[in-house]
């Protein structure tokens, strides 16, 4: 069966530019705040079909759905019911595991546990800030200062990433042998395959696995290893992967 | 109680009453409610209500082909929804009777209220 999000992508093309902008704000807001992906997608598709009908009858998306942002909040409340975790929370957990495993898989000789923990927690915090900003931006005008703030936070994070190896205590540094690395690699692949298989994004999942396999090869091949085993090389690779993952994983917009 | 709270409770009953007549999908229902007199009603108020009524078991939904072509989500009343309609009608009649009595006993037509103030 065609995933609901795919159908949404196709139908959304039929909205006029102005109506599409309005609808995509709503879509972004619901996808971030909605806790049940299937229910959220079903509601989004239902509203889209209705908006298209309204459009055909000469009514704009805003005239049809209303200008009050509280309506979107009420919709989120009803969609969520008593569900516990929303996309942001689920994603935080997944990013945590993803970063943990990626950083470990990229390690070739030893691991500084404290530095890794700081890097991972930083990534989860940044992700939450970004998602909150995106959700707010869907219905309220977010100042350029907020965006600048997030930009600065990202840069600060890269700084922390670079410095954490040098400035954290060296008491928790463990050597890693090839057997451990193979074990971590295997766990990583199993986790990714299972996650994407169950999350209705299997084809996108293959994309990530391919991208990560490529990255890991760069780290471990003798020719490219010299570059990508340095701190800067690994940071650039990780930032690149994190960006690809964020952009592809959400598929907020086509 | 402000207007929007009053409207929501009332609207819930009216949505159930309208759907008791025939199945509706979102757009049709919003249009029908507007035709019936809820002129300022926006769809943003109706969708959360439909979600809520479905979750409470008063409505059930089904994806079916529409006259327009694509499959739409049609809402229909459940037995529990029918009981809820009876409860709504009873509550509403009691409320209107009470409010009418209060208006009559306080002489509270608009003009009357203005006169008292003077």
TrEMBL record, chain B:
Entry-linked Pfam families: PadR
Domain Transcription regulator PadR N-terminal: 15-86
Superkingdom: Bacteria
InterPro entries assigned to the protein according to its UniProt record, in alphabetical order: Metal_resp_DNA-bind_regulator, Tscrpt_reg_PadR_N, WH-like_DNA-bd_sf, WH_DNA-bd_sf
Name of the protein in its database record: PadR family transcriptional regulator
Organism: Ligilactobacillus murinus
Organism lineage: Bacteria, Bacillati, Bacillota, Bacilli, Lactobacillales
């Amino acid at each position: 069966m065609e995933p609901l999000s795919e159908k949404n992508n196709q139908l959304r093309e039929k909205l006029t530019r102005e109506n599409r902008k309005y609808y995509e704000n709503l879509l972004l807001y619901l996808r971030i705040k909605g806790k049940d992906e299937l229910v959220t997608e079903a509601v989004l598709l239902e509203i889209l079909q209705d908006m298209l009908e309204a459009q055909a009858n000469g009514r704009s998306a805003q005239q049809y759905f209303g200008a009050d942002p509280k309506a979107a909040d009420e919709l989120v409340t009803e969609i969520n019911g008593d569900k516990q975790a929303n996309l942001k929370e689920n994603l935080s957990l997944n990013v945590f595991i993803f970063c943990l495993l990626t950083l470990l898989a990229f390690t070739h000789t030893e691991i500084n546990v404290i530095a890794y923990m700081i890097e991972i927690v930083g990534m989860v915090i940044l992700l939450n800030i970004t998602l909150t900003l995106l959700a707010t931006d869907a219905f309220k005008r977010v100042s350029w200062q907020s965006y600048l703030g997030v930009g600065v936070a990202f840069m600060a994070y890269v700084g922390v990433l670079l410095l954490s190896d040098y400035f954290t205590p060296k008491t928790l540094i463990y050597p890693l042998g090839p057997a451990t690395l193979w074990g971590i690699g295997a766990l990583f692949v199993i986790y990714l395959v299972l996650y994407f298989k169950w999350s209705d994004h299997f084809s996108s999942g293959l994309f990530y696995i391919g991208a990560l396999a490529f990255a890991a090869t760069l780290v471990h091949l003798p020719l490219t290893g010299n570059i990508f085993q340095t701190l800067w090389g690994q940071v650039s690779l990780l930032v690149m992967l994190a960006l690809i993952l964020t952009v592809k994983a959400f598929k907020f917009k086509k | 109680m402000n207007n929007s709270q009053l409207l929501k409770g009332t609207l819930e009953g009216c949505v159930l009453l309208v759907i008791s007549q025939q199945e509706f999908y979102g757009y049709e229902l919003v249009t029908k409610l507007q035709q019936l007199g809820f002129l300022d009603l926006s769809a943003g108020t109706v969708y959360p209500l439909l979600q809520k009524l479905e979750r409470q078991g008063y409505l059930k939904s089904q994806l079916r082909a529409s006259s327009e072509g694509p499959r739409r989500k049609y809402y229909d009343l459940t037995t529990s929804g029918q009981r809820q309609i009876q409860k709504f009608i009873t509550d509403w009649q009691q409320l209107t009777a009470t409010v009418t009595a209060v208006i009559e006993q306080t002489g509270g037509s608009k003009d009357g209220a203005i006169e008292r103030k003077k």
